[in-house]
Amino acid sequence: MAISDFARAVEKRINSAGISYTERAGWHPSLAGYYGYGDVDKVRVFARVMMKAPDRENIQPRRGFRQFFTIQVGDHPVTIQAGNASVNTHTNSGGYVDFPVKNHGLEPGWQTVRIEAEGAEPVDAEVLILEPGTRFGVVSDIDDTILVTMLPRAVTAAYNSWFVRTNARKPVPGMTEFYEAILDEHPEIPFFYLSTGAWNTFHTLVNFIAKHALPKGPMLLTDWGPSQTSMFRSGQEHKRVQLRNLVIDFPDITWILVGDDGQHDPFIYGNFAEEHPDRVAALAIRQLSPSEHVLAHGTAAPLGEVLHRGMVPTIAGADGFDLRKQWVAMDEIRPGVLPHAFSSDANLSS
Fold first, then answer.
1. What's the predicted TM-score (pTM) here?
2. Does residue 121 have a pLDDT over 90?
3. Complete domains list, the chain, with CATH
4. How far is CA 255 from the centre of its chain?
């Protein structure tokens, strides 16, 4: 038996014991609905079923570690009502639902879908239906791109995630202003947030984005449990898969990809741009300091420098103010249009 198989078996046994214990204690299944997305033909709905104490209220703010302690309910019946469509499905082993609903009839814009699960109170989840003909979109990383977590600093990152109260997280300076500059040119452009963070942090991130006036958008988060092939799920693979899903779901959209160079965003985005050059309008990379890079991967140079060789227009800066300045400067080259109109050798990175 592979170690990943053993880890999954242990996780399943512990969770099953947790469900049995909490049921005897009067707990019941509870639904969490997450932001979904789609177009007028199909909408992707996200949700999760977990056990909840009958007298537990969702009190905010709370220390970060509390959001990670959950007992998921796998293989649980779930019904989704999205506009004209009603579908039945089941949660996966992690208690998650990720289900595409076709022929829903929902109008473009933010809409709600109804989710029901056996033994749980129904919930409404918001979904973003893109306008027909939408041509451009933004994919934004979260950690150290819009939210200061200092992931390269393992101890500091753990402290920020587990012990800092969830309403005390700090934004990366200037990112709100940078995204406002993009919206000034294209008010209807959709924003998607792609992160290796866990779904447990969804509601904290929703509050953070609203508090700091960042654009509201669907989130593509992940689960930290063991996978079919390893003890821990690959954050890089998660990002690659979700980017490909966006290309499949929206074949006519060209993307602006925003991330940081503290981990693997330049590699992931650069490879994606090589694979889909007609689907990437520009890259925007927040640069970490040399000391942060040393802590992240042992060298003071960004991991992704070798990939920024003019495949698509690229801007880079220490914070959102730097990125905004360079973005606005693009108007001198491309008045009124997005960066995909550049020549292939355009590169504005610092």
1. 0.82
2. yes
3. 3-129 (2.60.40), 136-341 (3.40.50.1000)
4. 15
